[in-house]
Amino acid sequence: MILLRLFWEFFKTGLFAVGGGMATLPFLYDMGAKTGWFTEAKLADMVAVSESTPGPIGVNMATYVGFETAGVPGAAVATLGLICPSIVIILLIARVLKQFRNNPTVDAVFYGLRPCSIALIAAAGLLVAKITFLNPGVRTFPELLRWKELLLGVVLLVLTRAVSPLKKLHPIVFIALSALTGIVLHF
Amino acid sequence: MKLLTLFLSFAKVGVMTFGGGYAMIPILEREIVEKQGWASSEELMDYYAVGQCTPGVIAVNTATFIGYRVAGNAGGVAATLGVVFPSLVIITLIAGILTNFADLPAVKSAFAAIRVCVCVLIFNAVLKLWKGAVKDKAALILFLLVFVLSLLFSVSPVVFVLLCGAAGIVLTRMGVRGK
Q1: Predicted confidence (pLDDT) per residue in A110-140, tens digit
Q2: What is the dihedral angle through the alpha carbons of A91, A94, A97, A99, rounded to the nearest 10 degrees?
Q3: Which chain A residues touch B168 with a CB distance below 8 Å?
Q4: Cα-based angle A143, A146, A148 (whole degrees, multiple of 5)
Q5: Which of A59, B38, B65, B158 has its CA 20 to 30 A from that of A26?
Q6: Out of B55, B73, B177, closest to residue A16 by CB
Q7: Which of A54, A121, A128 is opposite residue B18, by nearest beta carbon?
Q8: Taking CB atoms and an 8 Å limit, are B119 and A133 in contact across chains?
Q9: A73 near B CB under 8 A
Q10: What's the CA dihedral at A175, A176, A178, A183 to 10 degrees?
C-alpha cells in the first residue's frame, strides 16, 4: 500500500515540478509534512547527499526518499513514479517538437509557470533556512539565532558568489568544506 | 541491441552527471553527439531547452527525447531507465550506509553544517533561475504572490502551478507582458 502511495506522490511531483531537479523540493517538502515520512531536517540532509553524489539531483532525491520510506522497493517505485509523467509528456511532444516550441499558448503557460516555480523553490529554501539558522522553541532574540551556522552561511555565500575562481567550483567542494567545518567546530 | 546501447550510454551520462543542470551539457555533447552521433549539437540544445520548460527532471526529459529519436517509444523508455539506473544503485547504497552512522556525533555535526551549505546552494539556484523567469512586473507580482501565499497556507504546490499556468495565458492575452 505504501508503495502505491509513494508512486502516486512522486507521479504528481514529476508531473507538476517544472524547471529541473531543485523544482521537486517544494513538492518533497509538502509530501513530508502531509505523510510524516520524513522530517524537514532529514529532507535537508537528503538534498545535500543528492547534490554530492552522481546522478541528476531530482532523481537522487526521489530515490533517497523512496528508500527511507520503504527500502529498496520504495527507491525503485519512487523513481519510476517521478519519471513516468516525463516519459509520456516528452514522447508526445517529440512528435510535434517544432509546433510545440512555437505555440503561443504553450509559451503563455510557461510565462506564468516560471516565476511560480522559482517562488516555490524560494519558499521551500526559506523553510530549510528556518530549521538551520534558528533554535527551535526559543523566543528571545540573541538566543534564537545559531551564530556558528549564520557565520558559515555568510562565508559560503561570499565564496560561492563573490570570489571569482571559487564561484565555478562544483557544489560538492562547498558541501565537503561545510562537513569538515561542522566536525571541527562541533556544530 | 540498439535499446541496450541506449540504456548503457545514458547510464554512463547518469554516472557522470553531478548535480544535474548545465553541468550535464558537455557530458551529453561527448557521448550523444561526438561518440554515438545520435543528434547534432543544435538538436541537443533544442531538446535541452524543451526539457527545461516541461515538467520533470531535465536530464530525464533530454534522455527521453534522444531515445525516442534513435529508436521510437521503446528507445525513449530505454534511455530514461538508463539515466536513472546509477542513481538507484548509488543512492540506495549511500542511504543504507548513512542510516547506520546517522547517530554518531561527528555525522550529526557534519550534517548540521552541510544544511547551511544547502541553504546557500538553494539561494544560488533561485538567483540563477530568476534571470530567465522574472523579466517584467507581472512576473514579479506572480513570484511574490506565490512566495507569500505558499508560506502562509499549507496548500499543495500543484494548486499554485495550475493557477499560474492559467495566469500566464490571461496575462499574455491582456498584453501586460514585457512591461
Answers
A1: 899 989 989 998 998 898 898 899 988 888 8
A2: -50
A3: 108-113
A4: 130
A5: B65
A6: B55
A7: A54
A8: yes
A9: no
A10: 140
Residues 75-94 of A with CB under 8 A from B: 75-76, 79, 82-83, 85-87, 89-91, 93-94
Question: In whole angstroms, what is the distance from residue A49 CA to residue A43 CA?
Answer: 10
Q: Where are the domains of chain A?
A: 2-133, 135-187
- Residues in Cβ contact with B106 at an 8 Å cutoff, skipping those fewer than 6 apart: A183
**Is 70 exceeded by the pLDDT of residue A27?**
yes
What number of residues does chain B have? 179
Which distant-in-sequence residues (6+ apart) come within 8 Å of B170 by Cβ? none
What is the value of ipTM here, to two decimals?
0.87
**Maximum separation of any 2 CA atoms in chain B, in Å:** 58
B8-55 pLDDT, tens digit per residue, is: 999 999 988 876 666 677 788 888 999 999 998 888 888 888 888 889
Yes or no, beta carbons of B69 and A94 under 8 Å apart: yes
Residues 6+ apart with CB under 8 A from A5: A35
